[in-house]
Amino acid sequence: MGANLDYVSIMTYDEAGAYEGHTGHHSKYTWCISATERYHSKGIPKEKCLMGVPFYGHTFKLQDKNKHGIGAPITGEGKTPHGEGDNAWYSEMCDLVKNKGWTKEDPDQGHDPISYHDLTWVGYDDPYAAYDKSKWVKDNGYGGIIVWEITQDDFEPKCCSKSYPMLRAINHVLLVTALVCLQVLSAVAKPKVICYWPNWRMDSGGDDKHTPENIDPTLCTHIHHAFHVLDQQHNVVKDSAGPQPDVYRRLNALKQRNPDVKIIVSMGGWGAPDNQYSQLVGNEGLRQGFIKNTIAYLHQYKFDGLDIDWEFPVCWQADCSKGPKSDKANYAKFLQVS
Fold first, then answer.
1. Which domains are present in the chain?
2. What one-character-per-residue DSSP string does 291-306 give?
3. How far apart are CA 147 and CA 108, in angstroms?
4. β-strand 74-77 against 305-309: which pairing, if any?
5. pLDDT: which is higher, 300 or 179
6. How far apart are CA 266 and CA 245, in angstroms?
7. 277 to each of 94, 208, 267, 283, 331, how far by Cα in Å?
8. What are the start-end ranges of the H helices in the chain?
9. How far apart are CA 237 and CA 231, in angstroms?
10. Which whole-number Å values give the CA distances from 299 to 163, 253, 288, 315, in the listed order?
C-alpha cells in the first residue's frame, strides 16, 4: 500500500480518556514512537510515515485533588473554561498555566506535560513535547509531522511572544534545519509538516475564529482543508459546509507567501459514515468513477491532492464487530486505483 501513497498520516493521539477510569496522557512520547515504528514495520517506507502531534489535550475530573499524577483516579471527564467537551487547546493551557494559577508538571522528562487545578486535570503537548517528537522523527529518518489542528495553537498570540509556538517548535527541527542541510545535500528529502485546518473555525465566534488569512503558510508544507465528505449521489467529494469557492481561492492565495505549500482536500474524519466508504471501496465501478470525478473536482478548485481520512475500515467507529473483513482488501484496491 505504501507504494500508492505520498505519505501516511499516523494519528498518534486520543490514546487515553475518561473511559479508562484514571488520568492519562493521550499522546505519550514512547507510545507515539512505537506506533510510528509499527507502520514502518508493516511496509510503509520511513519517509512516508508521519507522526501525529495534537495541539490539544484531554481533560479529566479528579477524584481527589491531592492525587494528580498520571494514573490518578477520576470521576469522569473534566472541562476547562473554554474547552470543547473534554478537549483543551494548547492556547488555553498556556494561558491557564501562565496567567490563571494552574500547576504544570513534566513527569516524563518533559515529554508528556500535564496541568491541573483543583479537580481538573489535563494531559497535553506543549512546544517542548512537539520539539522532542519532531527531533525523534528527524533523527530516525521518518517523513515528518502531522498536526491536528493549527487553530488550537496560540496563533494570535495571547500567551507567547510569537504566533504559533507549537508549529514553530516543529519547524525549528524539521524545516529550518532541513533547509540549511538542503543547501549542501540537495538529494535529501524535505520533511513534511502537515497542517490540518478545519473549515468550521471560520464560523466560530470571538477569539476562536480562524480564517485562511490567519494561516502562516511558511510554517507548513501542506495545508489540509478539513473536512470534505463523500457525495454518494454524484460519487465525488463535496465540502461538508457546501461549495465555498471563495474559501478555496483564499487558501490558494497563501501560495503567494509560500509557492511550495500544497493545499489538500481532507475527506472523512471522525464520525464519517463507515458504511458509505465500505460501499465505495467494495465496488470496482464506484472506485473508478469516484477517482475520475474527484480528480475533476480537485482541478476545478485548484487543489493539489486528496487526503483520505477514513479512520475505521472494518472497525466501524472503533468497533471491529461492525464492519466486514473485506474492507481491508477493498481499501487497498481503492488506494491502488487512486
1. 190-338 (3.20.20.80)
2. HHHHHHHHHHTT--EE
3. 22
4. unpaired
5. 300
6. 16
7. 39, 32, 11, 10, 9
8. 29-41, 90-99, 127-139, 165-182, 245-252, 274-281, 284-300, 326-337
9. 6
10. 33, 16, 17, 33
User: Tens digits of per-residue pLDDT, 191-204?
Assistant: 999 999 999 999 88
Of 241, 305, 318, 237, nearest in space to 276 by CA:
237
Instruction: Say what the pTM is.
Output: 0.94
Distance CA 248, CA 250 (A): 5
> Cell numbers at residue 145, please?
509531522
How far apart are alpha carbons 252 and 262 in whole angstroms? Answer: 9
Task: Indicate if the pLDDT at residue 216 is higher than 90.
Answer: yes
H, E, C per residue of 195-216: EEEEHHHHHCCHHHCCCHHHCC
Cα–Cα distance between 34 and 46 in angstroms, integer? 13
- Per-residue pLDDT tens over the stretch 276-333: 999 999 999 999 999 999 999 999 999 999 999 999 999 999 899 999 999 999 999 9
CA distances from 93 to 111, 134, 275 (A): 16, 21, 37
Q: What is the Cβ-side half-sphere exposure of residue 30, based on CA atoms within 13 angstroms?
A: 4
Cell of 133: 517528537
Question: pLDDT digit string (tens) for 2-21?
Answer: 788 999 999 999 999 999 99
Q: Whole-angstrom Cα distance, residue 269 to residue 309?
A: 5
* CA–CA separation, 190 and 175 (whole Å): 7
C-alpha–C-alpha distance, residues 52 and 130, integer Å:
10
Q: How far apart, in whole angstroms, are the C-alpha atoms of residue 24 and residue 60?
A: 9
What pLDDT digit, counting tens, does each position of 252-283 carry? 999 999 999 999 999 999 889 999 999 999 99
